[in-house]
Amino acid sequence: MRITELLTKETIAMDLSATSKDQVIDELVAQLNSAGKLSDEATFKQAIHARESQSTTGIGEGIAIPHAKTDAVQSAAIAFGKSVEGVDYQSLDMQPAHLFFMIAAPAGGAQTHLDALAKLSGILMDEDVRAELLQAKSKEEVLNIINKHDDESSEEAAVTNAEADSEKGLVLAVTACPTGIAHTYMAADALKNQAKKMGVPIKVETNGSGGIKNHLTDEEIEKASGIIVAADVHVETDRFDGKNVIQVPVADGIKRPEELINMAQDTSRKPFVAKGVKQSSASSNEKQSVSKTIYKHLMNGVSNMLPLVISGGILMAIVFLFGENSFDPKSGQYNEFAANLWSIGSESAFKLIVPILAGFIARSIADKPGFASGLVGGMLAVAGGSGFLGGIIAGFLAGYLTEGIKYVFKNLPQMFEGLKPTLIYPILSVSLTGLLMVYVVNPPTAWLNNLLLDGLNNLSGSNIMLLGLVLGAMMAIDMGGPFNKAAYVFATAALTEGNAAAITAAMVGGMIPPIAIATAMLIFRKKFTKAQKGSIIPNYVMGLSFITEGAIPFAAADPLRVIPSMMVGSGIGGALALGLGSRIQAPHGGIFVIFATDFGHVLQTLLAVVVGALVAAIIYGVIKPKLTKEQLEIAEEVE
What we know:
Elements lengths: L11 E4 L5 H14 L6 H14 L3 E3 L2 E2 L2 E4 L6 E11 L9 E10 L4 H13 L3 H9 L3 H11 L21 E6 L6 H16 L3 E7 L2 E3 L4 H6 L2 E6 L13 E4 L1 H6 L1 H8 L25 H30 L16 H31 L1 H16 L3 H22 L10 H41 L4 H14 L4 H15 L4 H23 L6 H4 L2 H9 L7 H6 L1 H21 L11 H7 L4 H22 L5 H10 L1
Parallel strand pairs: 1-5, 3-6, 4-6, 7-8, 7-10, 10-11
Antiparallel strand pairs: 2-3, 5-6, 8-9
Helix pairs in contact: 1-2, 3-6, 10-11, 10-19, 10-24, 11-12, 11-13, 12-13, 12-14, 13-14, 14-16, 15-16, 15-17, 15-21, 16-17, 17-19, 17-21, 17-23, 21-23
C-alpha cells in the first residue's frame, strides 16, 4: 500500500493557524473528521491526548506525529499540516515543530495500513524530504513529494551495509514504542541511516503494532559487537545475556543514533546480565550505585501503591459526608451505600497497600519470581502489625531471597528449567520470606506495641500537653503501623471511659501528615515529581478526613526525612490542641466531627492542625534535597 492511499487531498490541511500544541491537534482531528475518517471525533481526540500524556510525539527536527489506534477511527488515514512560523509542541529537542502528521489507525487496522504508516515514519527521517514539505505550496505538491520517496519497498529483513568495512563489528538494535506505530520505525530508520553513513553493518528488529519484524537470530546476537534496545515498552532482553547492551528510551534512537552506535561498538563496556524479562529505560546498563538501586526498587513499590492510597482514601472521605458513623450497622446514621464505599476503600483498597508495596519492590529486584513472595511478605507485615515499614522490609527481603534462590539453582539440568518459575522459585521464596517475617520481623513489633500501650497508660495522668505531644507524634511515625495503632487504641479506649483528650490529640496528629505533605508540595514544587504533585488535592481531602495513610507513599519513598518531619508537626499539633482545650468526642471523622462534637473549640482545633501542618511541611521541604537527574529519570521510568 502506498502512503498516498492514506494521505489524500481531503486529509491535508496545509498551512495551520494553530499557535499551540492543543490547537494543532484540534485542527488535524477536525480535518480527519471532515474527510469522513472518524466515527467519533471526541473519542479520537481523547485517544490522541492520552498518547501525548505518555510522552510527547514531537520527536524533534521540526516534526510532530500525534497518533492513536482506536475504534473511533472509521478507516486508516494520515492528516498533514504545516506551520512555517513553528509551534511549541514540547518537542524532545525543545525546538518548534513545523511539520505535523496525524496518524489515525483503527483498532483492528490491517497490516498493510500499518506498513504504510511505518514507511512514512522512515521517510520523514530524510532531511531533504522535510525541507521539501516545508516549502510545498499546494496539496498536490505535498502528495508528489511523498510519492517520490515512496518506492513501496518492504522493510529490510537483512543486515544493511553488509559489504561495509569488515573490521567494524555488526550492530543489532530493537525498537519499540507504546503504540508501535511511529516512533518504533523512526528510531529504526534513524539508526539504519546513521549506520550507513558510518559504514557499520546493522540489523534492526522492530516491535510494532503489527508484531515483531526482522527478529534477531541467535547467530546474529552471538556475532554482534553490541545491541541497542531503544524502547519505551517491554521487549525480550534475556537473549542478550553477556552482550554489550545499551538500553535507552525509543526517543534516543531518533535523537542520538551515532552515539548509540559508537557505544554498541565499544566492546570494553560491562556485559549485560539478564534478569528474567526485566527492562530498564535508563540511559545505559552501566553499574548503578547502591543508593540509586535501592531508590529505584523502592519507587517501583511506591508508584504502584499510590493509586490504592488515593482511591481508597477519597472513597473513605466521601463516606463521612453521609455521617461520621454512616458505615457502622450499629449506628442510627447507617447508610448501606456509604457502608459499601467504606468496604471498598478501607477493607479492600487500603488492605492491599502494604502487600502491593512489598510485592512490587520484590518484583523490581527479582522480576516475576519475586512478586509472589513479596505479596505474601506484605500480607504478613499487615497481619503482624509491622505496617508499611514492615512492608518495605518484606519487599527487599523477598526480592533478594529470590535472587539468591535463582543463583543457587542456575545450574540445574535443562529438564528442570520449566519447574523453576512455576514450582521451585515460588515455593522456596514464599516459604522463606514468610518464615522470616513471622519469626524475625514481626515479633519485635508486637513487643513494642505492648510496651507503648503501657507507657501511654502511665503518661495519661500527667501533663496534658505532654500527652498530646506523644500521641500526636506516634500517629505520624508509621501511619497505620504498630506505633500509630498503639496510640489510636489507647485513645479510643480512653474515650469509652469518658476521657476525650487522648482521641483529640490522636485525631489532630493523624490529620496533619497528609495535609503537611500536600502543603510541602505547594511550597517546594521543584522538589517533587509530576506524579507526586498530582496527589495534592487527594492528600488535603484525606488529611481533613483523618485518613493518615495519604502520606504513606511519601514516607515509604523517603522515610528518613518524612517521618521525623511529620512527627514534629503532629506532636506540636496534638500538644497545642490539648493545651487550647479542644476535646473531640468521636473516634474518627476528622473535620466532619470536629464541628459536630466540639463546636466551642473549632477555631482552636483548626489552629492546631494548621500550625502542626505548616511546621511539618516547612521542615520536610527544607531538608528534602532537590531531585537529582538520576531520581527524575527513575521517577519518569517508573511512572
